[in-house]
C-alpha cells in the first residue's frame, strides 16, 4: 500500500530537478486525458441494461414495508409456479411514470410496471403498453367497470388486482353518544355534521388539498350530483362545490381542509378532531392500530334519497410495457395473470383491505370482511377518473384543484369553476 | 483565446528543427508550447466535465422549450420543433404571471429576513459570553434538517386548528386562529417565514466568519476615536464585511429563487395557487402534466433570472479582486 502510494505521488509530482521537457509533459497530459475519457464514459454508461433470461422485473410503488412484503411474497409464489425469478423494484408513487418514461427512452423498461390507474392512459397513449388480451389474459370474471378501469380506448392494458373507492368513515362512539344515525343524504350529512361539531371536534373531515387527493375526494360529490368533468362550470358541479362551501360555512369542516392530504384527514379522525371523515380502505390498517377507536363505514351520502352514490375508482393496474421482445412479453403476461389470479387477488385484498377486482374473489372477500361490505357495493358502481378524458385528466385535475380551493377560501363556486373550465380547455 | 490548435503547427515546426539541431538541445519555443499543452491537459477534465454535466443539460433545456416534447417522445424519439408555441402558451397562462410575482416576493422577502436576522445573530455571537458555542450550534439545527422534513414539521405547526403555533398564540390571547397556510392571503407570507427560519443559519455562519476576519485593531481605533457602537458598525464593520455580504446575498438568491421542495411540502402550491412559484410551475408542467416543453420554458426563465445575478456576482467579485 505505501509502495503504491509513493509511486503514485512520484508520477503526480516529478522531482523538480529533472528537466525532461518532452517526457514530462506527455506523462502529465496522458493521465488527465484518460480521466476525461473516463468521466465521459461513466456518463454514457448505465444507459443499456443487461437482461437476465430467467429474471423478470416488476416496477411498482410498494415502498411501504407491509405492501413491499406482500408483493414480494406473491411474486415468490408466482415465480415458483412459472419457474422464473421475479424481482421487485419499488419507487415512490409520484415517480413511477417519469421513471418508466426515462427507462423507455433508454430501452431498459422492466417487464411489468404497476401504474396507478389514472396514469396508465398516458403511458398507453404513448404506445408503451401491450394489449393484455393478446398475451392470453381473460377478463371473464371481472366486472365491466373494472375492465374499463384497466382499459384505454377499448384496449385492455391493465389488470387490476384490487380496487378501492372512498367511503364515509364514522366514529361509532361519538355518533351513539349524540344519538344520531349515520347520514345517507346530503341534507342529513349536513345536519349530522353540524350537530357533531363541538369544541375541538369537527363534524366531518375531508381533503381539499392542492393535489390529486383533493380532486379524488371531490369526485363523489360531483358525480353523485350528476356533474361531469367535461363540463366543470355546469350547474351540477357548481351545486356540489356549493355544498362543500356550505359545510365549511356551518363550521362542520375545519378551514385547514384546503391544506390536508388524505393521510392528514385520517390523523385528524384518529386524534378525535373529527367525528366523520371521507377516506379510503388503505387507512384501515392504521385505524385498526388504535384499539380504543370504534369506527364504522358507510357509502358517501347522496344528494337525494334514492340517488346512486358514485365514487371514484382507485387502485393500481399491472401492465406489460412494450419492449419489443415478444417471448419475454408472453412470460410477463403469464406473471400478470398469476399475480391477478383469483387466489392472489384475495390474498392481496385481505392484506390491504381493498376490494378484489375479480367478482368471484370479491364474493369470498365479502364473507371474510363483512364490516367492509358497503365498500364492495360502492366499488361495483364506482367510476374511473380517466374513462372520459384519458390522458387529458391531469389538466382537468389541476384546474379543479385550484377551483375548489378558490371557492373554499372565499370566491364564488361559479366564478372559480368557470375559470377552471377555461383553464382545462386551453391547457389541452 | 488560445485553442489546442497549435499542436498541429508544432508538428510542422518540429521537422526543420530536428534537421538542423541535435534532438537533445532544448528549444525555448517548443518548451513553451509543451507547457501550454500541459496546461490544457490539466484544464481538459474540468472542461469535459462542465460541458457534459452543465453545458449539455442547459442547451438541451433551451432546445426542448422549442419542441413538442410529450410522453410519446420517449418511445419514438421524435420531438418536432413547434417554434415559439410553448413560450407563447406559457406567457399567456395567467398562472405564469402569478408564479413570477410570487417568486419575486418570496425571494426578496426571504433574503431580507434571512440576512437581517442572520447578521444580527452573527454580530451577537461575535461577542464573548458563556454558552456562546452551544447556542451557536443550536442555531445551526435548521440547516441540518432536510428541507422536506422542515416542510412537513412546519405544516403541522402552522395548522390552523391543531397547530402548536396557534395554540401558543391562543394562550397569549393574540390571534389564535390565524389561517397560516389555509388563506390565500396568508399562505405566501407563512411560506416566506418558514424559509427565513431555514436560511438564518447559512447567513449567520458566513457572516460570522466574515466578522472574525475583521482585525480587532480597527474596532479599537474606532473606540479610541470615540465612535459609538452603531457608528462603528456602520463605518467599520459593514464596509469590511461587504465582500462576504455579496457572497451571502447572491448564493442566497440562487437557492431561494428556484424553491420547490419546501413549497410542495407546505402547501402544494395552494391554496388556490397562492404559493405557486416558477419552481412549482416547472414541476407541475413537466411531471404532473408531462408537458416537458412548457416545463422547459419556465425552467429557462428561472435560469435566465439566475444568470443575470450570477453576472452581477462575478462582476462584483472582479472589482473586489482589483
From TrEMBL, chain A:
Stretches the record annotates as Disordered: 1-24
Organism listed in the record: Streptomyces rubrogriseus
One Pfam family from the record: SBP_bac_8
CDD domains, A to Z: PBP2_TMBP_like
Protein name per the record: Sugar ABC transporter substrate-binding protein
PANTHER family reported for this sequence: ABC TRANSPORTER SUBSTRATE-BINDING PROTEIN, ARABINOSE-BINDING PROTEIN-RELATED
TrEMBL record, chain B:
InterPro entries in alphabetical order: MetI-like, MetI-like_sf
PANTHER family: BLR7065 PROTEIN, SPERMIDINE_PUTRESCINE TRANSPORT SYSTEM PERMEASE PROTEIN
Residues annotated as domain ABC transmembrane type-1: 100-313
Subcellular compartments: Cell membrane
GO cellular component terms attached to this protein's record: plasma membrane
Annotated region (Disordered), positions in chain: 1-28
Annotated Polar residues bias: 1-13
GO BP term, pick one: transmembrane transport
Annotated protein name in UniProt: Sugar ABC transporter permease
Lipid bilayer topology: Multi-pass membrane protein
Chain segments annotated as transmembrane: 40-59, 99-125, 137-157, 186-208, 244-267, 287-314
Family the UniProt entry places it in: Belongs to the binding-protein-dependent transport system permease family.
Record's keyword terms, sorted: Cell membrane, Membrane, Transmembrane, Transmembrane helix, Transport
Chief location of this protein within or outside the cell: membrane
Database matches in CDD domains: TM_PBP2 (cd06261)
Top-level taxon: Bacteria
Source taxonomy: Bacteria, Bacillati, Actinomycetota, Actinomycetes, Kitasatosporales
Amino acid at each position: 500500500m505505501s509502495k503504491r502510494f509513493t509511486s503514485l505521488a512520484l508520477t503526480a509530482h516529478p522531482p523538480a530537478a529533472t528537466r525532461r521537457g518532452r517526457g514530462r509533459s506527455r506523462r502529465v497530459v496522458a493521465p488527465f486525458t484518460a480521466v476525461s475519457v473516463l468521466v465521459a464514459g461513466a456518463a454514457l454508461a448505465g444507459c443499456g441494461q443487461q437482461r437476465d433470461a430467467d429474471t423478470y422485473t416488476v416496477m411498482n410503488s410498494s415502498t411501504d414495508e407491509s405492501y413491499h412484503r406482500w408483493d414480494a411474497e406473491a411474486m415468490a409464489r408466482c415465480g415458483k409456479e412459472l419457474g422464473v425469478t421475479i424481482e421487485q423494484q419499488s419507487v415512490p408513487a409520484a415517480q413511477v411514470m417519469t421513471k418508466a418514461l426515462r427507462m423507455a427512452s433508454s430501452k431498459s423498461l422492466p417487464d411489468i410496471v404497476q401504474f396507478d390507474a389514472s396514469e396508465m392512459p398516458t403511458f398507453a397513449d404513448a404506445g408503451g403498453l401491450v394489449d393484455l388480451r393478446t398475451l392470453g389474459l381473460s377478463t371473464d370474471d371481472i366486472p365491466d367497470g373494472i375492465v374499463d378501469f384497466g382499459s384505454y380506448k377499448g384496449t385492455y392494458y391493465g389488470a387490476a388486482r384490487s380496487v378501492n373507492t372512498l367511503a364515509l368513515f364514522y366514529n361509532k362512539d361519538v355518533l351513539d353518544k349524540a344519538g344520531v344515525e349515520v347520514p345517507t343524504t346530503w341534507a342529513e350529512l349536513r345536519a349530522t355534521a353540524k350537530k357533531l361539531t363541538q369544541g375541538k371536534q369537527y363534524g366531518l373531515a375531508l381533503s381539499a388539498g392542492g393535489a390529486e387527493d383533493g380532486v379524488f375526494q371531490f369526485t363523489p360529490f360531483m358525480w353523485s350530483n350528476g356533474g361531469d368533468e367535461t363540463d366543470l362550470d355546469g350547474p351540477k358541479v357548481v351545486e356540489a362545490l356549493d355544498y362543500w362551501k356550505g359545510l365549511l360555512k356551518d363550521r362542520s369542516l375545519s378551514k385547514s381542509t384546503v391544506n390536508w392530504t388524505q393521510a392528514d384527514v385520517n390523523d385528524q379522525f384518529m386524534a378525535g378532531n373529527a367525528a366523520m371523515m371521507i377516506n379510503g380502505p388503505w387507512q384501515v390498517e392504521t385505524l385498526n392500530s388504535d384499539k380504543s377507536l370504534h369506527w364504522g363505514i358507510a357509502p358517501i351520502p347522496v344528494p337525494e334519497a334514492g340517488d346512486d352514490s358514485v365514487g371514484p375508482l382507485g387502485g393500481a393496474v399491472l401492465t406489460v410495457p412494450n419492449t419489443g421482445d415478444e417471448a419475454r412479453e408472453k412470460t410477463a403476461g403469464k406473471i400478470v395473470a398469476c399475480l391477478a389470479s383469483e387466489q392472489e387477488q384475495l390474498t392481496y385484498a385481505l392484506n390491504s383491505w381493498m376490494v378484489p377486482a375479480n367478482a368471484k374473489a370479491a364474493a369470498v372477500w365479502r364473507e371474510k370482511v363483512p364490516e367492509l361490505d358497503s365498500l364492495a357495493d360502492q366499488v361495483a358502481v364506482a367510476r374511473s377518473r380517466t374513462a372520459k378524458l384519458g390522458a387529458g385528466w391531469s389538466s382537468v385535475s389541476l384546474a379543479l384543484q385550484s377551483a375548489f380551493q378558490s371557492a373554499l377560501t372565499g370566491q364564488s363556486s361559479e366564478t372559480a369553476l368557470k375559470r377552471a373550465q377555461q383553464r382545462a380547455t386551453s391547457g389541452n | 483565446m488560445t485553442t489546442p490548435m497549435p499542436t498541429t503547427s508544432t508538428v510542422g515546426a518540429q521537422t526543420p528543427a530536428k534537421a538542423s539541431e541535435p534532438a537533445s538541445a532544448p528549444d525555448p519555443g517548443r518548451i513553451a508550447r509543451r507547457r501550454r499543452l500541459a496546461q490544457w491537459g490539466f484544464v481538459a477534465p474540468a472542461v469535459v466535465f462542465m460541458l457534459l454535466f452543465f453545458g449539455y443539460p442547459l442547451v438541451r433545456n433551451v432546445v426542448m422549450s422549442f419542441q413538442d416534447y410529450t410522453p410519446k417522445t420517449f418511445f419514438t424519439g421524435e420531438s418536432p420543433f413547434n417554434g415559439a408555441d410553448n413560450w407563447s402558451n406559457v406567457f399567456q397562462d395567467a398562472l405564469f404571471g402569478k408564479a413570477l410575482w410570487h417568486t419575486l416576493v418570496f425571494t426578496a422577502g426571504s433574503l431580507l429576513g434571512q440576512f437581517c436576522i442572520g447578521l444580527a445573530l452573527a454580530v451577537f455571537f461575535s461577542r464573548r459570553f458563556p454558552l456562546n458555542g452551544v447556542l451557536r450550534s443550536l442555531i445551526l439545527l435548521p440547516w441540518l434538517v432536510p428541507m422536506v422534513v422542515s416542510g412537513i414539521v412546519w405544516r403541522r405547526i402552522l395548522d390552523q386548528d391543531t397547530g402548536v403555533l396557534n395554540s401558543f398564540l391562543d394562550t397569549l390571547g393574540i390571534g389564535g386562529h390565524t389561517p397560516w397556510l389555509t388563506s390565500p392571503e396568508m399562505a405566501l407570507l407563512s411560506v416566506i417565514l418558514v424559509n427565513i427560519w431555514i436560511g438564518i443559519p447559512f447567513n449567520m455562519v458566513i457572516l460570522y466568519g466574515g466578522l472574525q476576519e475583521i482585525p480587532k485593531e480597527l474596532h479599537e481605533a474606532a473606540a479610541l476615536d470615540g465612535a459609538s457602537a452603531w457608528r462603528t458598525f456602520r463605518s467599520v464593520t459593514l464596509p469590511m464585511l461587504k465582500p462576504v455580504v455579496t457572497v451571502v446575498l447572491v448564493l442566497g438568491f440562487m437557492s431561494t429563487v428556484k424553491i420547490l421542495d419546501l413549497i410542495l411540502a407546505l402547501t402544494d402550491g395552494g391554496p388556490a395557487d397562492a404559493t405557486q412559484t416558477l419552481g412549482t410551475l416547472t414541476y407541475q408542467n413537466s411531471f404532473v402534466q408531462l408537458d416537458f416543453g412548457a416545463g422547459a420554458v419556465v425552467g429557462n426563465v428561472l435560469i435566465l433570472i439566475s444568470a443575470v445575478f450570477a453576472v452581477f456576482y462575478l462582476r462584483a467579485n472582479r472589482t473586489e479582486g482589483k
